[in-house]
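Please decode residue identities from the backbone states below.
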């Protein structure tokens, strides 16, 4: 039996080897559905900002809930941006780039730069030897034990839930996305600069309308709501029980998609706001499938029926995962380190 067959998610080798033919059936975008999704996402988002202009003069108790709701629409808008980055939203590459650039400004994310970095994530997800770009910092148990005190402290700080899901999203969208990576190609670097200029113009206009204090409170609330939800979604998509990680020599693209990306089964309202991104196992298998075809693909194809779902309640267990144990091939918490140290001492004595 081959290594791929051993790690297959209960489906047959034939099912998995045929995956390209399966996903090809769902890769055709619909202009009508794409346009309608833009309308039912961007228009309400702008409308909520208009409502906040009215309510901010009445009570913050009305404005803050609206800002949180706007954050929900920003998450959905990010999925449109995301699909454009994969050239999945329209047949026309120009249309993808145009809509991607506009929604990129609205979601505080430079389109071309993010597109370049996210492509690296897709090509290396689940590969222990290619971690570090577009993913959540994850160390193996052995790497952690061999690290300096400062690196261990930094890692624990980075994986702290308050840092990871509250402060990091703000830092990502307000600071890190404003600076291009040094190794990024020229077009990708310039997309950061143009996005920054557009964001500056948008912020100046909204400050003129709302006033500086009101704008900052509203915008930060919107970004916190969207950013925290977005980072949590991304975290659960790749940090869950039974997740796939392999060294480069044993890494397999299809297995990394089907086992290294979760099927996050969310309530319908959250599935709508998150643009079906819970079907992440299918998305990683074929990024060219538009988000509105993902559920149909999952329900219609036997290959995906064997993928165990992660429920909303069950996903809370992901809070406890901190390190990857290469020996046991699973994510573990810091308490597991005591067992590892104890075993190492016993081995040294014998």
């Amino acid at each position: 039996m081959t290594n791929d067959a051993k790690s297959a998610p209960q489906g047959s080798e034939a099912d998995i080897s045929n995956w390209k033919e399966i996903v090809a059936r769902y890769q055709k975008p619909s202009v009508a559905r794409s346009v309608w999704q833009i309308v039912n996402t961007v228009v309400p988002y702008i409308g909520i900002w208009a409502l906040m202009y009215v309510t901010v003069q009445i009570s913050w108790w009305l404005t803050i809930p609206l800002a949180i709701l706007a954050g929900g629409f920003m998450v959905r808008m990010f999925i449109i941006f995301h699909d454009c980055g994969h050239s999945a939203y329209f047949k026309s590459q120009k249309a993808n780039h145009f809509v991607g650039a506009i929604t990129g400004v609205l979601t505080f994310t430079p389109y071309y730069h993010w597109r370049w970095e996210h492509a690296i994530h897709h090509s290396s997800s689940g590969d222990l030897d290619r971690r570090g770009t577009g993913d959540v910092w994850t160390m193996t148990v052995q790497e952690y034990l061999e690290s300096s005190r400062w690196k261990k402290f930094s890692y624990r700080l980075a994986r702290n839930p308050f840092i990871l899901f509250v402060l990091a999203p703000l830092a990502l969208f307000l600071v890190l996305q404003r600076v291009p990576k040094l190794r990024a190609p020229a077009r990708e670097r310039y997309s950061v600069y143009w996005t920054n200029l557009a964001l500056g113009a948008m912020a100046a206009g909204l400050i003129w309308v709302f006033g500086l204090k009101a704008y900052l409170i509203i915008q930060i609330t919107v970004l916190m709501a969207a950013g925290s939800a977005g980072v949590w979604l991304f975290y659960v998509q790749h940090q869950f029980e039974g997740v796939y990680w392999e060294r480069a020599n044993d890494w397999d693209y299809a297995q990394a998609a089907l086992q290294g990306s979760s099927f996050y089964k969310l309530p319908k309202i959250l599935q709508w706001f998150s643009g079906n991104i819970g079907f992440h196992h299918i998305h990683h298998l074929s990024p060219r499938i538009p988000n509105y075809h993902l559920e149909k693909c999952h329900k219609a194809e036997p290959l995906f029926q064997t993928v165990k779902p992660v429920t909303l309640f069950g996903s809370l267990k992901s809070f406890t995962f901190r390190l990857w144990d290469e020996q046991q091939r699973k994510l573990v918490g810091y308490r597991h380190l005591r067992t590892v140290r104890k075993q190492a001492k016993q081995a040294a004595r014998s």
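Observation: Confidence is low (pLDDT under 50) at residues 1-14.
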